[in-house]
């Protein structure tokens, strides 16, 4: 696929569309993980989180053929994503301050670690979609990765602004990660058919179930943690 041809232009438009849709998931994770950071560390959290996501996409793009042959990869990724989503709900604190008045925040590197784990899962689907649109063009694949950088940086900053003003959206965002996890598990080449053989409607319902389950379980754990904290307050 040569530069300047109609096929190249069509492929580039497809990749831009894919990046707009899928980079939003990465931006959401970065925003959720960085929201608990002090204000002066948020910019670094966004930049380092975006850097981790891009590094993972490059690694997946370089080894996509080998990655696809790993059995149960999507199922393992779904479990990791559920863990990240629940952790983000539990760590989310309305008011972001403890009873003692001290700011409760994760460290910068803890936030980056959470982003890297989630991005390791979600970047796989992003690279697969972009690789399919690129149809073997290394230039298109590189452009797809380059285009996703500003989308994630700007998207993360916008979502952080929104989460500060509507804290309840953090729970909804974690539910979205649960939805993605359910979809990954349902489309795993090994687990997906096994699930369908047990209960025919479960693969379709699984994203809904994981979405609701993540939000409910995370809220229960967060409420329990809040009760424990209140009981320890003098």
TrEMBL record:
Assigned keywords, A-Z: Membrane, Transmembrane, Transmembrane helix
Subcellular location: Membrane
Presence of keyword Transmembrane helix: yes
Bilayer topology term: Multi-pass membrane protein
Superkingdom per UniProt: Bacteria
Entry's transmembrane regions: 12-34, 46-66, 72-90, 111-134, 140-161, 168-187, 199-221
PANTHER family (alphabetical): MEMBRANE BOUND PREDICTED REDOX MODULATOR (PTHR30238), SLL1022 PROTEIN (PTHR30238:SF4)
The family this protein is said to belong to: Belongs to the TerC family.
Protein name: Uncharacterized membrane protein YjbE
Organism, as annotated: Mesorhizobium ventifaucium
Gene that this polypeptide is encoded by: yjbE
